[in-house]
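ok posting inputs for the S-adenosylmethionine job
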Amino acid sequence: MQDEPEVAVLRYGHRPGRDDRMTTHVGLTARALGADRVVFPDNAGQSQETVEDITGRFGGPFEVELTDALNATIRNWEGTVVHLTMYGERVQDVEGEIREAHREEPLLVVVGGEKVPFEVYEGADWNVGVTNQPHSEVAGLAVFLDRLFDGRELEREWEDADRQVIPMATGKKVVDPDEES
Ligand SMILES: C[S@@+](CC[C@H](N)C(=O)[O-])C[C@H]1O[C@@H](n2cnc3c(N)ncnc32)[C@H](O)[C@@H]1O
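and the output
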């Protein structure tokens, strides 16, 4: 988020067809819940297009990148690396230390798809479990980002949006923010 060290999310692995929706949702969740950037494997171009399209309509800033070098992205990260896994330390036990680290330097959050190789576990500063139960990369990422930002991400303002949802108890209202102001 603005005025804070960067938070990037790395989607580690993507099976075209089977993972399209999940990978897209990793990107949309990263964007909506305060990350600055998502990095997808280079075979996830379709998900990149979708997330960029949403950013174009609902605002940013938010970047989507593709890489053919997942391991190097982790290895060369200049900052803290958190890998979300059901086998990791409990998020409630380590969130304070991770928040402190993020005050000082950029944070890379790695989420898997199919089996994640052991070098990712070794390359991470923290392996973190959002519960130690199996669930999904989207759910794990959402809870982790909310813990990291302590709810501040819910107040985020969006720039250059064509559409803005007006919250209401019942019904749907979407406006062009330029016309509203
Ligand atoms: C289908 S799961 C694979 C489960 C895998 N055995 C693991 O290590 O968590 C895909 C991804 O969801 C995320 N995930 C699943 N359960 C999680 C949990 N309890 N805590 C944190 N992340 C989780 C991890 O990033 C994982 O790579």
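notes: The chain has a mean pLDDT of 96. Residues 7-175 form a domain with the Alpha/beta knot fold (CATH 3.40.1280.10).
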